Automatic annotation (TrEMBL), chains A, B:
PANTHER family registered for this protein in UniProt: HTH-TYPE TRANSCRIPTIONAL REGULATOR GALS, LACI-RELATED TRANSCRIPTIONAL REPRESSOR
CDD domains: HTH_LacI, PBP1_LacI_sugar_binding-like
InterPro entries reported in the protein's UniProt record: HTH_LacI (IPR000843), LacI/GalR-like_sensor (IPR046335), Lambda_DNA-bd_dom_sf (IPR010982), Peripla_BP_I (IPR028082)
Keyword field contains Disulfide bond: no
Tree of life domain: Bacteria
SUPFAM superfamilies for this protein: lambda repressor-like DNA-binding domains, Periplasmic binding protein-like I
Record protein name field: LacI family DNA-binding transcriptional regulator
Gene3D superfamilies recorded: 3.40.50.2300, lambda repressor-like DNA-binding domains
Organism, as annotated: Streptomyces longisporus
Length: 341, 341
DNA sequence: TAATGCCGTGACAGCGCTGTCACAAAGCTG
DNA sequence: CAGCTTTGTGACAGCGCTGTCACGGCATTA
């Protein structure tokens, strides 16, 4: 910076002011400084300025993985947004519980970021409490954190409308398939199940726990077994609501293999609307992770600029039902069932 | 840090030495300092230390998007590796040409990282030259950069073995479908085409340019049209080699719609082995982006630690052919064709 | 016993910026 | 035209660390 100052014939103070875009610099000095900076290929050192300002210009982002469509989309919209605000994005990929423990042990983001964005982790209260002590805004994305700023999709409402759609088609026996993660069922999982149950209750249909089964989405064998449980019931379902599209796709594959036509003999409904859904022509409840990334990014920038302000703490995003080809009226005399007693 | 020093009854120098793990600290002092640091919830400020050491502890990573399976997998393996080496990962998502121009204009990574990892961009020579001036190691991932360190998959060899597989099955009319990106055909694209041609040449089959068509993978209509070109030939192909799995999946969908059985009437071969391939039971040439991320991460760490060392500049990763259900012998009296004159 | 070397520790400057204050010059006001 | 404000600029301390150097104490050697 001293070099630039010398070349432009001004003090380093003035160079600093110019490069930060402060207004109290006369136009010709500004021009001289900018030229000098360009000629010398100069860029301010973030390290040095953050040392004095106390702001790092970094947003730390915690994600469990980047392999999922969801994370990829969220970060793909978050990234450019932060860059436009002249912020860096420090990424922490925490793939398993061991890494997670070591992360919370060291908390490497501690003094090295202005805010933290935590994606989809379903943290324990203890973990959240540690993050509270970080001394920076922490935003929970795609999960609900009591009393802390968070951005998430309205899973319950989505599942509610999805289930209603199946009911409206005439289905009365509707199964729900859940997928547990490494630390049990996620918050989203619970909410979606809740929405499903609410829709059934609303329609006056008694809950039947044998219609709710679970299997890890990645484990095709387990999914097939879960399907088997449903097919072996005295009164099997005519529709299956899968908590995630991937699960739905696996179910469809298994159903086809068993020569059970989708949607003629069995309707399948997904949740997410990831690219796979289109390949499978899957009716699904869409959420938009890129929208979520954008909203979370905007919130984080607001919180950095005034952490005290009374921002909306919980931003809940809507879902949309996308009708495609895997749902239809149930087999049999559905017309008569449509106006139940 | 002063607080820790006071609490432990030592100087800040000693605290610094302890926390950096230098050996010249007596065991009991080390224990005292570590306890004090833990009790005060202290972590060193990277900004401050990088100011004096000149090393930022950051690896900047440039990616075009994170929505692709490829990027997600690469970063998912890179992330934990860098964290294990106590490095931060600064992510720059550059989705379009405008962002790209502005990135190269500002070069925000300039003094804020120790190394730069550039993924899949097919940079112009001018852009690469700018990066050379950055004063830090720059590693090109999944692309070939003349005279600069890079990590990429052996696309030509992969396409060669893929095409050979089709030839071995008895196919003689084999089409190749390419997908152009925003800046034309990628390096990989060219290499794969090259491998395809080489296999044909090797088998003594004359190249027929009408068998090489192109369509953007995302544009299903365009892919269908490209397929139409092939089907409208006087002597249509019996197999199609798609440059990417997504393209292959779109082709399969279009073929099914046209009631052309895969693989009975037409074999389809992909390239990538992304999750979609398994859903489509697609025979494909597999590459491993997570392996690539790992290798790139190791290389970057080596280059940071001694930039002058004579490291292997180009790391070429192998591909593997994954036989699945979308390739078969060509229709008709293939047995006779198998030993061509 | 004196000379020598090594080990563990502390003092202190300085990394590259920014914020504060001081100050000169120019523009107002009555 | 004196006295005020406003504007643009420079000097300088200090952010939180680390690297260097100096120094006291102990072990080793002649």
């Amino acid at each position: 910076m001293a070099d630039v100052a010398e070349r432009a014939g001004v003090s380093t103070s003035t160079v600093s002011r110019t490069l930060r875009g402060l207004s109290s610099v006369s136009p010709d000095v500004r021009a001289r400084v900018e030229r000098a900076a360009r000629e010398l290929n100069f860029a301010v050192s973030r390290q040095a300025s953050s040392l004095v300002t106390g702001r790092t210009g970094v947003v730390a982002v915690l994600v469990p993985t980047l392999k999922s469509w969801f994370m990829g989309s969220a970060l793909s919209s978050l990234g450019p947004l932060l860059r436009a605000a002249d912020m860096e994005l420090a990424l922490y990929v925490i793939p398993d519980l061991a890494e997670r423990a070591s992360f919370f042990e060291q908390l490497p983001a501690r003094r090295n970021a202005d805010a933290l964005l935590v994606h989809c982790f379903d943290l324990t209260e203890e973990e959240s409490a540690r993050l509270d002590d970080l001394g920076m805004p922490v935003i929970y994305v795609s999960q609900h954190a009591e009393g802390r700023p968070s951005v998430y999709v309205d899973d319950a409402a989505g599942a509610l409308s999805g289930t209603r759609h199946l009911l409206n088609l005439g289905h009365r026996r509707i199964a729900f398939v859940q997928s547990p993660g490494a630390t049990g069922f996620s918050f989203s999982s619970h909410e979606r199940l809740h929405g499903y149950r609410q829709a059934l209750a609303e329609a006056g249909i008694a809950l039947d726990d044998s219609l709710v089964v679970s299997a890890r989405a990645e484990d095709k064998r387990a999914v097939a077994e879960a399907l088997g449980q449903l097919l072996g019931l005295r009164e099997p379902p005519t529709a299956v609501f899968a908590e995630q599209d991937e699960l739905a796709a696996t179910l469809i594959t298994a159903l086809r293999k068993a020569r059970i036509e989708v949607p003629e003999a069995m309707s399948v409904l997904g949740f997410d609307d990831q690219p796979l859904a289109e390949w499978f022509d899957l009716t699904t409840v869409a959420q938009s992770p890129s929208e979520m990334g954008r909203v979370a990014g905007e919130l984080v920038l607001r919180l950095i600029n005034d952490p005290e302000a009374d921002h909306e703490r919980h931003i809940v995003l809507p879902t949309r039902l996308i009708p495609r080809g895997t749902t239809a009226r149930p087999p049999g005399p559905a017309t008569e069932d449509e106006n139940p007693s």
